[in-house]
Amino acid sequence: MKPACIFDLDGVIVDTAKYHYLAWKRLANSLGFDFTEHDNEQLKGVSRIESLNLILRLGGKELDAAEFDAALVRKNGWYLEYIQQIGPEEILPGAAEFLSSARAQGMKVALGSASKNAVLILERIQLLDQFDAIVDGNKVSKAKPDPEVFLKAAEELAVPASACIVFEDAVAGVQAARNAGMKVVGIGSAAVLDQAHFVLPNFAGLSIVDVLARFA
Ligand code: BG6
Ligand code: MG
Question: Is the model's pLDDT at 197 over the cut of 90?
Answer without folding.
Answer: yes
